[in-house]
Amino acid sequence: MQKVKNDYAAWMELGPGGLPTNVGGWLIATALRPLARRDSLTVGGAAGPGLHWHLERRAGPRPTIAPYPIPHRQLTDRANSTLIERLNAAVTVEARPDGPFHMARSRFERRGDALYVTDITAAAPWIARTKGEILHVHETEGSSHVVLQPDDAQTVISAGWGELHPLAGRPVLGLPETYVFLYAPRHSDDADRIEQIIHRAISTATR
User: Fold this and answer.
1) Which helix (H) or strand (E) holds 182?
2) pLDDT tens digits along 59-69
């Protein structure tokens, strides 16, 4: 019983994201754990492993990721508030009046805003599958979820900047195969690279 209580407390500490933050949400997250993919570093549909465009490799080991598919969060190397604000600004600046993108509630996180392609008919295939959602930043620790074309997703993962969501490509939630978890920036140099990835995602989100 104590193990169950500790698991519930650890899940609650991750904060909100996608499920109700109560026992019911924890039970759903627990039930989804067996569906999590075993290989979070290989993207289906990519031309192959490795880098497909120039992206500097992330120094150091990957952060520790919480063992729950929802919410999908990291436990180590969390960003400070300044870096989180910087990433949010890099996203929201793209939502210009009468422009091709807008901000709206994330349909995956169900809390917080995400950047969307406004005209879904102009969306790239991998963005059309998300109903236009491109990316969102997690306020709790500065990680992000971003939808990329397959080769770009593999590049980001191979360079050490992220990994696939554990339910990516699974029909249970409708997450696309290239639903990538971007690690939080540890410092300004990391933020530079993450902004590069964000700009790449945005520039390829429309046809």
Assistant:
1) strand 179-182
2) 999 999 998 88
